[in-house]
Automatic annotation (TrEMBL):
<keyword id="KW-0808">Transferase</keyword>
<feature type="transmembrane region" description="Helical">
    <location>
        <begin position="21"/>
        <end position="42"/>
    </location>
</feature>
<dbReference type="InterPro" id="IPR001264">
    <property type="entry name" value="Glyco_trans_51"/>
</dbReference>
<keyword id="KW-0645">Protease</keyword>
<dbReference type="Pfam" id="PF00912">
    <property type="entry name" value="Transgly"/>
</dbReference>
<comment type="similarity">
    <text>In the C-terminal section; belongs to the transpeptidase family.</text>
</comment>
<keyword id="KW-0812">Transmembrane</keyword>
<dbReference type="GO" id="GO:0030288">
    <property type="term" value="C:outer membrane-bounded periplasmic space"/>
</dbReference>
<keyword id="KW-0961">Cell wall biogenesis/degradation</keyword>
<keyword id="KW-0511">Multifunctional enzyme</keyword>
<dbReference type="Pfam" id="PF00905">
    <property type="entry name" value="Transpeptidase"/>
</dbReference>
<dbReference type="InterPro" id="IPR023346">
    <property type="entry name" value="Lysozyme-like_dom_sf"/>
</dbReference>
<dbReference type="GO" id="GO:0006508">
    <property type="term" value="P:proteolysis"/>
</dbReference>
<keyword id="KW-0133">Cell shape</keyword>
<keyword id="KW-0378">Hydrolase</keyword>
<dbReference type="InterPro" id="IPR001460">
    <property type="entry name" value="PCN-bd_Tpept"/>
</dbReference>
<comment type="similarity">
    <text>In the N-terminal section; belongs to the glycosyltransferase 51 family.</text>
</comment>
Length: 719
């Protein structure tokens, strides 16, 4: 039988569709006309229809995660696979609501999810045309398809949701009828507009408005709304960002004409709108750390640390892959700990000492004692993957093959990644001093400290004598009798080796671990394990690799009266529905994932005693003992202008130089070294740079804040 495209033919199918008797036949004909010609019985179609799922299981679609500075306003970057942000329909321009209905489903407000007239009309057209000439999907059915696509977890489920088959059409019809009973028309329209794909990786109207017009959906004009609505049918074919906008303009005008037919526009407004050219204001939304704004480029290193931290958190998945996937799909609002003011201060001070074109990396990390919040991560490098114009690699063996990591790099030079770090020299004496104080030795513990000491530890090669390790001091002026104050202030090696021998090298190693240090190289891991750690005499002189992030966190423990807090890059993480993300800690407690993770590692008295001795290297005066007549960083206290402690550190031949300093409010660790070639010495002349960078950053960051005095240690620990 030849079916003519007449009103009678259309009306002939409508009652049957409403009864659910011929749905299978019509849908099969719409999708594959040859199936209709072969003949599918009405009974078989109805049975298939009735066997379909009756409830749409909607999973939240992937949404973009937004990362902000500590002010909650300054955007660092975003993470997404599909750029999308859910917005309520009340925050959408009425024009886009009208335009999408005019473009995709003019009978949207009349049908109940399945449009009998539309299906019958498409059936007739497809049958007469010998192929698929018209679709029959209502806006509700399209939403069902998108919801199934977005909820798919396997490639097979994606294919099932989008394949061109009569089975898929039947399933969409059944589910569309259910959706219309579950949601109002406005709720369906809202969900549709938040799911539709508009091209350029923009999913949903929020992303589309941002990508094509750099504005929010509520601000879309009539012409802009009609342009976006026209994209849904074929985003590539009607892309207005192409050089030739003819197809996009024709499609926009089609939408405008339909809006007039539906009574949304007057003929005059339609004509005036069609006369206007499509004017885009394209933007490429940031994605990942390499998209941090150029004027905030240094924030990329902090962003990279945030990603590393995120990948370690069980709150976001069972493994690193799941956690990164959730970051890109979860729609989180992440407020970081990064303080824009302190970050700017740190970067200014670092860059003033060493330019980005230097092969030597000079960096600084600032942490808040008592919380572990990472306030700044600055380094004299440009965060970029492009190394095409980088300098020559400083390792002669590699210079002919690869570029150096300066000025451009994404290597985690400051910590938080897989880079082992740098030897930190005498800054490690803090761990020996804390271990001794923790073991009951008072600040007044005294040793006669010669220029060279024959230690109890075995040793071979340079620095050994008679099969023993024989460390020496940097200067003959250090020779004499010292207690912890002057031994720390002058950085007397032979004093601290004797202190380490008395308390046990393994105790110093364990103290470093308690304060957040980890061992990344094979040698460090071997030496740190018992019983080998008992023989690691050189540990107190800082022969292990460590990062500025770890050292700032360790010294912050002293500033916080012995409370160690894990370095933390966030202050708040909310899901897309505004709930704080939680996790279950080792104690089985459910806590906010952004809550500081602190533990009391040494008593307040031990920490206060160490802090008192730590005033000596900075040119200050201890509250309870004598620093003697000189120190290794005498400029720090005058620069900071408030109570401050710290410690210098240099390695053999000054291959690296460090300073770690702290007030009660902030702790900062700075270094200078060649990360490409650790054997490339920076030289003694460079050792003042970390000292100045820390002192000036502490001073500038705390400007205008009240001076916080330190509580002195008890007489029992001074003696």
């Amino acid at each position: 039988m030849v079916i003519k495209r007449t009103l009678s033919a259309t009306s002939r199918f409508a009652p049957l569709l409403r009864a659910g008797l011929i749905a299978g036949v019509v849908v099969a004909a719409v999708a594959y006309p040859i199936v209709a010609v072969g003949g599918i019985g009405a009974k078989k179609g109805a049975e298939a229809f009735n066997d379909m799922p009756r409830q749409l299981n909607v999973k939240p679609p992937a949404q973009t995660s937004y990362v902000y500075a500590s002010d909650g306003k300054t955007l660092l970057t975003m993470f997404y696979e599909e750029h999308r942000k859910y917005v309520p329909i009340s925050d959408m321009s009425p024009y886009i609501q009208q335009a999408i209905v005019a473009s995709e489903d003019q009978r949207f407000y009349e049908h109940n999810g399945v449009d009998p007239k539309g299906i019958a009309r498409a059936f007739v057209a497809n049958h007469e045309g010998g192929g698929v000439q018209q679709g029959a999907s209502t806006l509700t059915m399209q939403y069902v398809r998108m919801a199934q696509r977005d909820g798919a977890e396997t490639p097979e489920e994606v294919q099932e949701a989008t394949e061109q088959t009569s089975t898929r059409k039947l399933r969409e019809m059944r589910l569309a009828l259910a959706v219309e009973k579950q949601y109002t028309k406005q709720e369906i329209l809202e969900r549709y507009l938040n799911s539709a794909y508009f091209g350029h990786r923009a999913y949903g109207i929020y992303a589309a408005s941002e990508v094509f017009f750099s504005k929010s959906p509520k601000d879309l004009t009539l012409v802009e709304a009609a342009t976006l609505a026209g994209l849904v049918k074929a985003p590539t074919e009607y892309d207005p960002a192409t050089q030739d906008k003819l197809a996009a303009t024709a499609r926009r005008n089609y939408v405008l004409d339909n809006m007039q037919k539906m009574g949304y526009l007057s003929p005059q407004d339609n004509a005036a709108s069609k006369a206007l050219p499509i004017q885009l204001k394209l933007s490429t939304p940031a994605n990942d750390c390499v998209s941090v704004p150029k004027n905030l480029n240094s924030w990329g290193f902090f962003c990279d640390y945030l990603k590393t931290w995120w990948a370690e958190q069980p709150a976001f998945g069972d493994n690193a892959s799941q956690r990164e996937d959730n970051l890109r799909r979860g729609g989180y609002k992440i407020v970081t700990s990064l303080d824009p003011n302190i970050q700017n201060i740190a970067e200014t001070n670092v860059m003033a000492k060493e330019k980005s074109t230097s092969k030597f990396a000079h960096g600084l990390v600032v942490i808040q004692p008592g919380t572990g919040l990472v306030k700044a991560m600055a380094v004299n490098r440009v965060y970029s993957l492009d190394q095409s114009k980088n300098g020559t690699h400083s390792d002669p063996a590699k210079a002919a093959k690869i570029k150096g990591n300066y000025p451009n790099t994404v290597v985690p030079l400051l910590g938080g990644g897989d880079m082992p770090g740098y030897q930190a020299g005498s800054t490690f004496k803090m761990f020996t001093m804390l271990a001794a104080l923790d073991a009951g030795m008072p600040l007044s513990t005294a040793f006669d400290s010669p220029q060279r000491l024959v230690s109890q530890y075995l040793g071979e090669g340079p620095g050994s004598c008679g099969g023993r390790w024989c460390p020496s001091n940097a200067s003959g002026a250090m020779t004499g009798r010292h207690m912890m104050w002057s031994g720390f202030g002058k950085s007397v090696n032979t004093y601290f080796v004797q202190l380490e021998q008395k308390v046990g090298a393994d105790k110093a190693v364990r103290m470093a671990e308690r304060l957040g240090l980890t061992w990344r190289t094979d040698v460090d891991q071997m030496m740190a394990k018992p019983p080998r750690s008992k023989t690691w005499g050189a540990f107190t002189l800082g022969v292990s690799d460590v990062t500025p992030l770890e050292m700032a966190g360790a010294y912050a423990t002293v500033a916080a009266d012995g409370q160690y807090c894990e370095p933390l890059p966030v202050t708040s993480i909310q899901t897309n529905d505004g709930k704080q993300v939680t996790w279950t800690n080792k104690q089985g407690q459910t806590v906010d994932v952004a809550k500081p993770r602190c533990r009391q590692e040494v008593t307040p008295d031990v920490a206060r005693a160490a802090a008192d001795a730590a005033r000596c290297p900075t040119g200050g005066k201890a509250q309870t003992g004598s620093c003697q007549e000189w120190s290794t960083a005498p400029s720090v206290t005058p620069t900071v202008g408030r109570p401050v402690g710290g410690k210098t550190g240099t390695t053999d031949s000054t291959r690296s130089a460090w300073f770690v300093g702290f007030t009660k409010e902030l702790a900062a660790a700075s270094f200078i070294a060649d990360p490409d070639n650790p054997f490339n010495a920076v030289g003694d002349a460079q050792s003042q740079k970390p000292i100045d960078s820390v002192a000036q950053t502490l001073r500038d960051s705390l400007k205008g804040q009240p001076v916080v005095e330190w509580t002195p240690p008890s007489p029992a620990i001074v003696r």
